[in-house]
Amino acid sequence: MTAAKIFSEVYAILQALGGSFTSKIPADVLERIEKERDMDYTVHINENKPIDRQGLSGDSMAMLAYIRLEYWLTDEQDKQGFLEFLKKNENEFNEKLANSGSLRAILARIKK
After folding, report:
1. I want to staple 41 with a disulfide (CB 3.0 to 4.6 A). Which of 8, 26, 36, 55 is the partner?
2. How far are the Cα atoms of 21, 25, 74, 79 from residue 30, in angstroms, in the given order?
3. Smallest Cα–Cα separation from 4: which of 59, 67, 45, 54?
4. d(CA 95, CA 26)
């Protein structure tokens, strides 16, 4: 996925969340997200679905996680808990990958 499409997905989520969230992000960051987005890429957000069910790219989710950590979480304990959550997810992913066999075997299963 191109950087412009990632910015488009992040922009769409921020628009759906509204001012109480976007007001905590520095203006220059918001301007960059808006300026760099792909105006021809339409992102459909269903506000009734959780963010992890929106079909966003992993890179978009990573950018949103960074925004959450840097601008939305103000309490150090909350930040630490979020970092632990991210690390746990990374470890679980790596464990699943390790237990699923070689990369070649994984790709063969995907192609079927």
Report:
1. 8
2. 11, 7, 19, 21
3. 59
4. 37
Q: How much is the pLDDT for 89? A: 82
Query: Which residue positions in the chain have pLDDT lower than 50?
Result: none
Considering only CA atoms, which of 16, 9, 69, 66 is closest in space to residue 41?
A: 9
Specify the pLDDT at position 71.
Answer: 94
Give Cβ neighbours of residue 11 (< 8 Å, ≥ 6 apart).
Answer: 33, 34, 37, 43
Q: At what angle are helices 58-67 and 3-17 packed, to 10 degrees?
A: 50
Q: Compute the distance between CA of residue 5 and CA of residue 1 in angstroms, rounded to an integer.
A: 6
Q: How many Cα atoms are found within 13 Å in the side-chain-facing hemisphere of 52?
A: 2
Task: Locate 47 and state its tokens.
Answer: 């506000």
